[in-house]
Amino acid sequence: MNKMKRLDKSNNRKKQVQSSDISGNTVDAMQPVNLEKSAKAMDEALATAAEHLAMLEDLHQTLNAGLAEQVKTEKARLEMEISQAADRAICATQKWQNMQLSKLSGLDAHFTSTHAELCKVKARMDVLDNAVQKAKNVQSVPLLKHYSDLDKILETLQAPIDKESFNMKCITMGCGMSVMFKSKWGNQSVDLFLKMNTGKPNSLSVVPPCLQQQSSELAQQPPGQAHVQSLASSHGHHSHGKAKSPLRSTNQRMSPSRSPASRCRSPTPTRGGSCYNSKASSQVGAVETQNQHVPAGAPPTGPELAKDKRRSRRRGSSHLSEQTKNVAQKVVVTHVVNPTHFYVRYAAKKQESDILSKEINTFCTLDASCFSTADNVRNGSILLAKGKEGLWCRTSVLSLFQNGHDGSVEICPVDQLGHVRIFFIDYGYTKSLAIERDVSNAVSSVNNHLRKINPELVRFAPQAVRCSLKGLVPYDLSKGWSKRAQRAFCEVVGSAVVGMSSFGQDRDSLLVDLSKDPVGPPNDIPISIRDYLVFIEMAKFYYPVKPSRRLLKYYSSVVPRINVEHNAVVTHVNSPDDFYIQLQSDNMESLLLKAKLQECYNDKNAEESLLLYCPVIGQACVARFDENMWYRAEVIGNPGYRKVDVFYIDLGFMTTVLVSDLRKMKDEFFYLPALAIQCCLLDVLPLAGETWSDACVKRFTSLTHGKLFTITVTVKSSKKTPLPVKLLESSPTDSPTNIAEVLIQEQLVCSKTGFKTNMVSDDAVWDSPLELNGLGPLELNAGAVVEFQPRLNLPGSLKEAKVRVSHINSPSSFYVQFVNDDSRFKRLNELLKKECELVKLQDVVWKSNMFCAARANQIWERGLICSDVSSDDTAEVMRCDHGNKVKLHVSNLQPLPASLEGSFALECSLTDIKPAGGQPTWTATACDFMHCNLSGASGLITVQELTDERPVAVTLMCTNKTGEFVNVSDYLAYEGLALRERKPVELSVPPEKPNETSCDANIQAETPTQAAPPLPAYISKLHFPRPAPRTIKAVEKVQTDLYKTPELPQLGHNRMTISAVSEDGLIYARTDTAECHLENLKKMIHQRMKTQPNQKLYTWKTVKGCAVIGPDMLWYRGQLLEVLGGHVKVQYVDYGLVENIPVVHVYPRLLCEDIPQLCVACQLHATNPIGSIWHQDAIKLLDEMLSDRLVDVNVLMLPTDPRQPVTVEIFLDGLSLSTILCHHKHALFDQTTPPAPPLPPAPILDIWDIDTEGLLGPREVMLGPFTKPDLPEVGEQLNVRVRHLQTPNEVFLFWEDMAHETVDGETLQECMTRINADVLSLLPLTSFPLGGPCLAEYSDGNYYRAKIMDIISAEPVRILIQHVDFGSNDTVPSNLLRQMPAELLRFPLQALKVRVAGFKAPSIQTEGQVLPYCPEWSVKATQAMIDLLHGDILAEFQYDDTSTEPSVLLFNQEGLAVFLPLLASGLAQLD
């Protein structure tokens, strides 16, 4: 084919050559003719081509520029899209990673085989723990062996552990989950594939070493030891070779997640120790290695019982005793003789007490409890007798009286018993029984009052513990305890549960203090019963008592800067060198503080919660200054008569006010320091020596008090002295006036500059030197110098030297001061004061063991640096002459001259005793006991041998309350706080007995050859406490469901009341409908739960809904959230609050289960907290803004589960709560969430076209006024009774004819009884016209006729009403008012307001307290008139045309005017 093509091309070229030759010939022929025409055409073509070429060049340039711009734009777009696509891929991968990581939290669910083996091991452990606990209980209470299967318990304890029955290979298996990753790349794409695969479990490649070691150890142990070792290992480390109780270790193992707060529960009183036999001990010896044997005997009582409980707790772990030593126990007072003799019962033992009472009354139904003719009654025996509630109780016989005998007898036959005096050992009161003698059957008469007791019931410890308020004596020692003191004690304690703090024991009484829990602000102090009785002057302290809680103090006032002018107002003036100013700054903090104080403390609703019943010296409070003006103050004195001395810290003056004018201080008012600054006038001195004249003080007060000045501070001063200032009074026309110059010109003061004193002449006589009484008889000649001895010089031995205990660390370390050194100690103080005042402050590098002069409590003393100075310039200093250590700032330290170094305090240690409980250190109880009883006490010490070693072993003797000297070592041993130190005697082993075992030798070596020293007489006569048996509480299984779900609000705008804010930021609110239901719910709960049910042990894990006793001792509905040992975490379902409370305050029962929860959980829309969690500052801000406040709520989204939170937006006065949180940097707006619609404006109902026909209910009928009763004739006398007194001369009267008036044959009382029976059918009151009639609910639950007097407040609505049939006024909410039936208007009023004629209020009022609504009358006159109007009064009616109220003359039963005593006492005057 290629050859053929080449041939065709050659033929064509030949043809072209031939044709060109022919055309050339033709052109040559025509050339001359067309030459000009061709040249012209060529020129035209060239011109056209030039134009086309220029056009193409322009197009080329345009296209090049467009291409470059196009490439640039598209490249930028594609780069951005590629970057965005890659970011999305990374985000999707990160999201997948987070999702898969979150699923790993439930990874343990994939190890089913391991879980199954764990359950098997756990079940076996529970069975073995249960058997151990039963064995311990049988040991403790031998009576239980009749009710327990001992063979089965022994079989369980001794059963071997078969290791082959447990599959330990399960811990080597994996979960079967894996991650798959695939990627596929293309030219323009990449495909990623991530997947979490779930397959069959596979074997782990590596077994954890800890599991490998444990499995190997279990495999190597013998079958009988595996479980015992694991049980012992769970007990933790045992010090001194002791093993803890299996029961305690079981509790710790079953609750590994208990918080420290739950472990620090209050100590529960037990029934004493346990008595073990050798057989029972050998059966459980593999678990518990050491038990203390306690001899059997009579059960302990009173303080001995509490002491035995402390001993049993000390035998436990030491850290538990450290945590519970200061925890107050909850008790109930059962009987009061006087404040130093009363009986209490532990609240935690109420369940055991109920069980004991049930057993006693069950036993009394048997014939075995009845006496027979052969029985005798012995003095001191335990019998059963009927108590106050008709139940049989245990009693102790105090005295017996036999028929035919004059005095008491020790033993008496039952059929001859005539009179018996018994003591109820479980309640604490004494009762005398007179046996009515029945000749036919004398024994039956005794059985009606007394019964025999089962010996097993005697082993229970007495429930009543005798106590005494520590350190209290009667207010009048000559009269003793009065009945008023007993009544005051009973009224403040009542039957409520109170806290009891124990301080020790005095004979058979516990020295305690009772306290009631506070109900006010969180910084409030619990009400101490001792302080309360002292404050109301029913008792007084035997010695000073320090408050148990540190009081909150105000910040010190801010001193103005030096050489800077400040504006200030003089608030109070005492003298020119003692007055107070208040700086005037530009900020409004002081004005806002004053306004908030008035707003808060003039609120009548919050008055009750802020009352201060028992103020303490140094306590911050708010005091009334004027009628309605409140200022911050501090209590500084207690003059008595229910009055206190207070110091107004913002004004600077002191005054005496009534306790009723004090209120508790809220935390929010502590933020500002004291505003009053104590000052003195600079460069002036009094004319008359050291005192200011009255004329000077009056003139200075008139010039300065209440005026604005410009002050200047030129010199520094200490905080304890007044601040020297210049007072300059500005003048618009002249230069400022210096107040000091004005006083100098008026010759009222002198100037310091150029002042020549003439107070001391050259021949002034100075005081004689201090007498050196403690240095011995010295003959001092003229000019002789006595050398001061700063150290303690002791002889070789001391016997009964008089000392004073200055400081106590423990019985092995305490400090004493010798009484003979008092004069040298006084001389030392004089020298130190003189030395330190002359020396200027020096910069000294203080090191450990350096002597110094320390200023403690504003007194210079000798000190010893204990450690190097810390970074905050604080040093720990030991007071050389006292022994205790204090922390002081270096500014309170001065170098001590070497001539004054030394100490007057001797460190001592008690001999012949050691710590109780086998511990090497003293318990906190022993140290506190010595500190409370011996600090500052005087005594006698004896030192057998004085060496250089410290502490010195001494014998200390101190006096008790009877004045007898008691050996402190013996007393600590008697109290059970110490043990006698045994001194073994070494005995030689006879040579003829070489085969004697070492065990016998040890026994002989521990047996002393000499008899132990005899105990003191007061110890040998006492009965030591003996243990009582314990009972085992059965656990009751109970299960409750949750309360019904709350009714959710409707979408859109709602008005809701905020009840609580939780820690996770949820806001709990109630609708208006729920608020109405809440009041009804409270009444229903109060009617159903009148008493506290018997407490039992419950299985709380199955309890959801429950009943809770709140801090106000009222019942509330709750939901159990978590069990925390002895406490539970509950939520009040109708309020939203969450609290940790003791188990004894929770009862597994649903209250009003048909009523749903009343509060709804809400969450803010599109509002995220900073850091993803709500911080404490944000929660406090929310709680302060929202608590108990009615707010606007815009409901945006309702959850599918009504228990989940509702998405809302809350508005406070039109401002969004989310905006407020974001403004305070507590939250951020979620930008990804669309914004919420705005709150709709308030509807304008006037322009709405709403058809209300058929929708309106029955309109409330407007009733007319009440009808007045028929008035008696002028001069007619009637027997009347006063129903209400408004003022001494304005009263409401009632007479018998009023009660007998009938309408349609029915009296008013009968009509009101009929209406109250069906009061729910009455409609609520919706219209509140002044003077309008209505029915109002009283405190007894019944409704009475009333009329509306005034509307007190609008939010909440509070209405003032008057009970027209009684005359009294009351303030009630609107929900307690009902529409009154019209038939009640036909009955006239049953209380007539009259004016008592003949007297009037005094023209000059001398009493301090007056009636707030009628200041003309005093409170004392009103109270006196009330006392005069009791009983029947004779009234003579008079009428005056000028007065709308009738006037009467009131006479008593003797015919005298009732107001005559008022005239005699000056409380009224004749009219």
Keywords:
alpha+beta, 5-stranded mixed beta barrel, 30 helices, 75 strands
Task: Characterise the protein shown here.
The chain is of the alpha+beta class. Helix content is 26%, strand content 27%. Strands 6, 7, 8, 10, 11 and 12 form a six-stranded antiparallel beta sheet that branches. Strands 3-4-13-16-15 form a five-stranded mixed barrel. Helix 2 crosses helix 3. The longest helix has 102 residues. The N and C termini lie far apart (158 Å).
How many DSSP helices? Answer: 30
Main sheet makeup: 6 strands, antiparallel
Would you report the number of β strands?
A: 75
Overall mean pLDDT stands at: 76
Gyration radius, rounded: 48 Å
What is the topology?
Blueprint: H1 2-103, H2 112-140, H3 150-158, E1 177-185, E2 190-198, H4 209-220, H5 226-233, H6 246-254, H7 260-263, H8 278-283, H9 302-314, H10 318-324, E3 329-338, E4 341-346, H11 350-364, E5 376-378, E6 382-386, E7 392-402, E8 408-409, E9 411-413, E10 417-424, E11 430-434, H12 442-447, E12 450-451, H13 455-458, E13 465-469, E14 472-474, H14 483-493, E15 498-506, E16 509-516, E17 527-528, H15 529-535, E18 539-541, E19 566-575, E20 578-583, H16 589-601, E21 620-624, E22 630-640, E23 643-648, E24 654-658, E25 662-664, E26 676-681, E27 684-686, H17 694-704, E28 708-712, E29 723-729, E30 737-738, H18 739-745, E31 749-751, E32 798-810, E33 813-818, H19 822-838, E34 851-856, E35 859-865, E36 874-879, E37 885-889, E38 893-895, E39 905-910, E40 913-915, H20 924-934, E41 938-943, E42 952-959, E43 965-967, H21 968-974, E44 978-980, H22 998-1006, H23 1017-1020, E45 1035-1036, E46 1052-1061, E47 1067-1071, H24 1072-1088, E48 1097-1098, E49 1105-1109, E50 1115-1124, E51 1127-1132, E52 1138-1142, E53 1146-1147, E54 1160-1164, E55 1167-1169, H25 1176-1186, ...
Parallel strand pairs: 13-16, 26-29, 39-42, 45-48, 54-57, 69-74
Antiparallel strand pairs: 1-2, 3-4, 3-15, 4-13, 5-9, 6-7, 6-12, 7-8, 7-10, 10-11, 14-18, 15-16, 16-17, 19-20, 19-28, 20-26, 21-22, 21-25, 22-23, 23-24, 27-31, 28-29, 29-30, 32-33, 32-41, 33-39, 34-35, 34-38, 35-36, 36-37, 40-44, 41-42, 42-43, 46-47, 46-56, 47-54, 49-50, 49-53, 50-51, 51-52, ...
